[in-house]
Amino acid sequence: MIKAVISGTGLYTPPATIDNDELVEAFNAFVELYNNEHAEAIAAGELAPLQPSSSAFIEKASGIKRRHVIDREGILDPQRMCPHIPERSNDEPSVQCDMAVVACNEALAQAGKTAADVDAVIVACSNLQRAYPAISIEVQQALGIDGFAYDMNVACSSATFGLQAAVNSVENGSARAVLVVSPEICSGHLNFRDRDSHFIFGDACTAILVEREENVGAGQGFDILGTRLKTTFSNNIRNNFGFLNRADESGIGQPDKLFIQQGRKVFKEVSPMVAETIQGHLESLSLAPDNVRRMWLHQANLNMNQLIARKVLGRDATEDEAPVILDEYANTSSAGSIIAFHKHKADLVSGDLGVICSFGAGYSIGSVVVRRR
Ligand code: CO8
């Protein structure tokens, strides 16, 4: 039987950053503009004044200190509060393709492979910048891969669901190697005017190369012991942007066409589901939580990750056991757990076990158990 192995990972990090103080300063300037503009309606009790944001709240509630973004200036302009990313002509590579190529090239180099060794590309992320042609086919062409490609979206769990699809393709023989790439431009669908969520997201792109075991050198990469996916429908994280928006003009510009969530409900409902999924997955592989050397968890909220790790292990996890990257990157949707894996896997030794686990909108949870070769 063919077995699938993770042989390389890559990461594209946009150079621009925004720290909490800068973001809050822009948000609070917007609040002042809004409240001045609506002073009469506010005084008459017809409108509630907007409340300011605070860096102390952001760090305490989420663990986020800064985020990388494609464009700083547009986000920090209180009159705009949206990144400025100029449209490109059809003859130029798309922004997501550019990000993907950097991350894929790093994953290939880490694995010691070239495009000639790869048969498929899956672009798996929470938002695609156009409907078609598929971004993945553009990436396939940009890398020079002779094979097939497709896009998929399971919000924050896109990369782990994409990993399962890649494992299936490698193990059923339809591809020798598959690149799973997650170009997340979260700043494009975040409402920077919403106090409850303006601080949550950042931009990044990850890539993972999944190959046949026989093509990967001894002691290189990670065996994939199993994947487990779980979905349960919920409206608590939602984005109603879509191709039917133009068919009802009354909805255009409404806040629900960007990311909206009931953050506290998500926290309460998703955390136990994630812990149960990881525990059940380990049990099905005859493994105990004590056997796990590291958990690369989805990076949405530090308190949430500490709670999940505690539920799985029955005690507090050290930062070595559940590394954190959200302080630096914020929530990068599906890229988050893969960034943690990419940055915190080199010190594992042969036989060490780990769990990559994503969770988010859907709800969706993806658990991937790996073992250092
Ligand atoms: N500054 C100061 N105070 C604030 C702010 C702010 N910015 N925002 C809220 N407050 C206040 C509130 O008004 C409230 O005040 P009061 O107690 O007086 O009513 C108080 O702070 C507490 O508010 P919350 O209950 O909302 O705060 P929480 O402690 O719950 O923290 C979090 C909010 C950080 C959002 C937290 O609930 C959280 O992280 N939850 C988990 C969310 C999560 O994991 N979501 C996953 C979404 S990501 C995903 O699935 C991918 C989607 C696709 C990508 C989309 C890209 C854009």
Molecular structure report:
- This protein has 373 residues and is an alpha+beta fold.
- It has a domain at 222-372: 3-Layer(aba) Sandwich (Peroxisomal Thiolase, Chain A, domain 1).
- It has helices at 20-37, 39-43, 55-62, 73-76, 95-111, 135-143, 158-171, 263-284, 302-313, 326-329, 335-343, and strands spanning 4-12, 17-19, 66-68, 120-124, 148-152, 177-185, 203-212, 222-231, 237-238, 260-261, 292-297, 353-360, 364-372.
- The strands form three sheets. Strands 5-4-6-7-1-8-13-12-11 form a nine-stranded mixed beta sheet, sandwiched between helices.
- Strand 12 and strand 13 (364-372) form a beta hairpin.
- Helix 5 crosses helix 6 (135-143) and helix 8 packs parallel to helix 9 (302-313).
- 46% of the residues are buried.
- The mean pLDDT is 97.
- Octanoyl-coenzyme A binds next to helix 3 and helix 8.
Would you summarize the structure shown here?
The chain is built from eleven helices and 13 strands.
- Whole-Å distance between the termini? 18 Å
Protein structure class: alpha+beta
How do the strands of the widest beta sheet line up side by side?
Answer: 5-4-6-7-1-8-13-12-11
Low-confidence stretches: none
Tell me about the largest β-sheet: 9 strands, mixed
User: What would the principal axes of the Cα set say about the shape?
Assistant: globular
Q: Count the E strands.
A: 13
CATH topology of the domain at 222-372: Peroxisomal Thiolase, Chain A, domain 1
- Pattern of helices and strands: EEHHHEHHEHEHEEEEEHEHHHEE
Query: Helical amount among residues, as a percent range?
Result: 25-40%
Counted by DSSP, the helix tally is: 11
Mean pLDDT: 97
Bound ligands, each once: octanoyl-coenzyme A
Domain Beta-ketoacyl-[acyl-carrier-protein] synthase III C-terminal: 282-371
Keywords: Acyltransferase, Transferase
Pfam family, one: ACP_syn_III_C
Protein name: Beta-ketoacyl-ACP synthase III
